[in-house]
Amino acid sequence: MARTICLNLLTTRARSRAELADALARKDVDDDVARRVLDRLGAAGLVDDAAFAEQWVSSRHRHQGLGKRALAGELHRKGVDRETAATAVEEIGRDDERARARALVDRRLPSLARYEHAVAARRLVGMLARKGYDAGVAYGVVREALAERPSPDEADEALDDLLSDPDADHR
After folding, report:
1. Regions of the chain with pLDDT less than 70
2. DSSP letter string, 77-113
């Protein structure tokens, strides 16, 4: 019964040992039986917290855009020990983290076009903070993205120049 519970859970996605142990405890499986089943599954390579942590970090960083702090927190909540979680999270390089943060900012920036730079910056940094990016990465990426965006005054001036010159080539 305990083996079946674990295998059923493992068919949907990889799980940490602690997640499987919690599931067995909720089904009132004896602790000794649960430990033996989890040890056998570990020996067979079906339960490996290090591999689970690496897979989790890679997937959640790529698809959800989560930063290192958020990923470490999720792994901790899933019962992965701090050392294993830290090793998995460190696989994300500084450049990869900056690139993912920049992609998130670039995707959100058009919806903030009507706001002043200060308001847009506050919202973008807040979004990155909620996704677990550290302040240095968040501020740097937002500053860079906003520097590339014309200020509302510059955009208005360009539009006025375009509209005031009737002989301009409007392609």
Report:
1. 150-171
2. HTT--HHHHHHHHTTS-HHHHHHHHHHHHHHHGGGGT
